[in-house]
Amino acid sequence: MPASHDHFITELNEKVLTWYRDRGIKRFENPQGVLHAGIALACNHIRKVMLLTGFSVDMDSDTGLPLPETDGPPGTAALARALQQVGKAVIIVTDKANEAPARAALSALDEDAAQYTQFVTFDEKQGPNAERFARLLLDQHHPDAVVSIELPGRNHMLDGTRRNMRGKVVDDFNGSVDEILIQANKIDVLTIGIGDGGNEAGMGTLRGIPLAIDGSKMASAVPARHAVTAWNSNLGAEALAAIILQRHGKLDVLHTPEDQTAMIKAAMNAGAVDGVTRGNGIDEVFSNGVSGVDGHSCFVHNRMLRLLRFIVQTKLSVDYTLVQGSNDIRLETAVGLPFR
């Protein structure tokens, strides 16, 4: 990557992707990952992309059903639509619990995009059946790229468990969708992983991932060619969407903050909860945050999206010739959030 890209990477990571740092994102961030992944996905030879998402953080104590979180499906929807806008076919793979939030988020964003997106359900648990089904999907669809967005990743490649950030094992209520990324890494397919805590599929090559809250090892062992880190995974997927669209001269069709809110609401209405607060309503206030995505309200996520768009538009030209210089006062005025 040319040295001229350094300024864009710094701006994007410091002011957007690692803006919230209380969960240790700075310990394992991969600053260049987002630009590397965005350039790779934008290439014309990448014609079909398989997106993997869905992280159920717990079981509902009343219903006994999985609790899918709002981080993942909205970002997947945003990335899916951006890929379609530049002429690429998209397949979305989730387990059953996460299918409804993913479909709802994409439909809220763009009904046409939802109509032209194929959804596949993957409920197999870790083991031979999951391995066979993963290989079958790759053989059937022949994706040029596989991207995982906020997908639980096993902490050991042979017999590992998948854990949430509190340390709870989530294998019983999450399909082993990370098997697709594992199998894709074995063949000539571009692989990308997006994560925010280090326990997600695709983070396997990163160092410095913290332990779970209970002290257990949650770090994913599942690697990807490009690891994208962000303080919430939706934002990492949105950053990829913006870079891809800018590369094709179509940043004007990037989803809006209003679209973003609609996707989060739709995911909640379809059964998703905030992964931190466990709230299922927009802007519910809890002791550990405000319900939206990862304990932050839609207000915060909307400002992040505005800032993301501003930086991509002003610092990254269509041909990746970067605009030098920074004006933090101008940026603060544009998005209404302080920088750290």
From TrEMBL:
Residues 21-281 form the D-glutamate cyclase-like C-terminal domain. It comes from the Bacteria. It holds the Pfam family GLUCM-like_C. This is D-glutamate cyclase-like C-terminal domain-containing protein.
